[in-house]
Amino acid sequence: MALIAQLTDPHLRDDGADPFHDPAQALRHAFAQIAAMDITPDAIVLTGDIIDRSATGYAHALPLLRQAPVPLWPMPGNHDDPAGFRIALEGWADFAPDHLSYTAPIADLQLVALDSTLPDCGAGLDRARLDWLAGVLGKSQKPILLALHHPPFTTGAPHLDKPGFQNADALLHLIERGGVRRIIAGHSHRSMQTIWAGCLSSTAPAIGHGLSLSLSGAQRHKPARMAPAFELHAMSPKGCVSHQIDLEQGSD
Ligand SMILES: [Fe+2]
Questions:
Q1: What's the pLDDT at 181?
Q2: Nearest 5°: phi and psi at 86?
Q3: Distance 204 CA to ligand 1 centre (A)
Q4: How far is the CA of 141 from the centre of ligand 1 (A)?
Q5: Looking at the domain assignment, is residue 244 inside a domain?
Q6: What is the rounded distance in angstroms from the CA atom of residue 200 to the CA atom of residue 189?
Q7: How many domains does the chain have?
Q8: Residue 42 domain-assigned?
Q9: How far is the CA of 139 from the centre of ligand 1 (A)?
Q10: What is the CATH number of the domain that holds 118?
Q11: Domain residues for 46?
Q12: Do 62 and 25 form a contact (C-beta atoms < 8 A)?
């Protein structure tokens, strides 16, 4: 079995002006809860928006990430700075040359961390990323955990669905060839689950602020006070079970 903690969207600021709670403290508490689990997770996958756009660089974030109690696999999101991310996190993973995707073994799984933030900051995959993914999927002998920042599926929330995910259909066709067991994403700052491309696919609640939900799109999409949480994905040949882990009361 592989046990993976998914943390997402801490939006670490460097000005202390956090809207609802201190995400750095929430991240430290998440690390402490992971370290105290009766079965230690094999890895943490951090599915993007490590820093907030308000922050300049990664100097405030790196010391925190280094406190992770198990191997941590960092991914970029639309609030990250791709050039700064590549420099700051050099050596953490074998990043592709023209985007920040990579693959890494976790227990008996293969993590495929797919960079879904396009150069224009939109969500999706360009030709280079699709070709990279096709090559990776074709080579892997292990079940694959596919992680992205943006959910590639239709969420039912207009503020997410209207911008869309470029080339979602091409991604779906690649996944339908087989090999991918589970799809995880961030970006929504909320928990969502669906079946997409034949896989259980989900987004996780954020370590940073929450985001409001309007299914009609009539209400403004805005930061919201939500308890920070993370997800724990247990994956074995028998199946995949995911648990939402709320940070302990008072830990934010
Ligand atoms: Fe975010």
A1: 96
A2: -60, -40
A3: 11
A4: 32
A5: no
A6: 18
A7: 1
A8: yes
A9: 31
A10: 3.60.21.10
A11: 2-238
A12: no
